[in-house]
Design a protein that fits this description.
β2 and β3 form a beta hairpin. The mean pLDDT is 93. By secondary structure, the protein is mainly beta. The strands form seven sheets. It has a four-stranded antiparallel sheet, with no helix packed on it. The protein has a four-stranded antiparallel sheet with strand order 5-6-7-8, with no helix packed on it. It has one domain: Methylamine Dehydrogenase, Chain H. The chain contains no helices and 26 strands. 48% of the residues are buried.
Length: 292
Amino acid sequence: SPQEDPVLIRPFRAHTAAVTGVAFNANAAGLVTCSVDRFLILWKLETQCRAYKFAGHAEAVTSVSFSPDGQVVASSSHDHTVRLWIPCIRGDSSVLKGHTASVRSVSFSHDGYSLVSASNDKLIKIWSVCYHRLLFTLFHHTGWVRCAKFSPDGRIIASCGEDKSINIWDTRNKICVNTFSDYEGFATFVDFNPSGTCVASAGTNNTVKLWDIRMNKLLQHFKVHRGGVNCVSFHPSGNYLITASNDGTLKILDLLGERLLYTLHGHKGPVLCVAFSKGGEKFASGGADAQV
């Protein structure tokens, strides 16, 4: 738990370029990572198990997501596609085509039935996982969309883009119901807290902000990094947030005490992604140094 000092379990080295995404499967026994090297790698946390490499994307892979049941992996890429992989059947992937520019993020809904992708074509697309087809598209951003995530109940999507806005969408009516504007810089990453009441955003201006989506206001504002923040991940308790930054560090924030708990060094260069396991007992990070 965050009450105990974090200890490095092991570094994973197999990617040959920056690691852009990381996700645990449901039981935290496995980890999937993606990279600028165009590969996804599935790691088993027991040291004696070998890692599996998935090839299919034609360009850098930008993000990766495990379905809640751990049966499917989704990835997004600069090659304009989203791919679905079945980890237990190593080989082919299904391609979801529809975006006309780099896809920057992909994420499952919490029931595992839908997938949301965000792209440089300024669009957010929602896909059916089961039928591998487009369900609907959300239009509102006026710049590249960097990230989009479902709320825990699936009724809301939060997105952020280079138009310096964080948009909140109603998935049933397919409309933007609220916008938070951030004029100091744009947010590169958003995520919901476990209860779905607030959204955390990671900013190019070195900040992490928490927005209350019920009261429509800024709740908390942390400026603890010396470089742009690339990714955040909530602990399942909702009380802690881990952040990854271009300053080469990870930081664990105590949201209740509104204080910095830990600063973790280990990557050489920018830390690009971080994720807690579902139970919160582990977290993994990926960096520009190609290390996990």
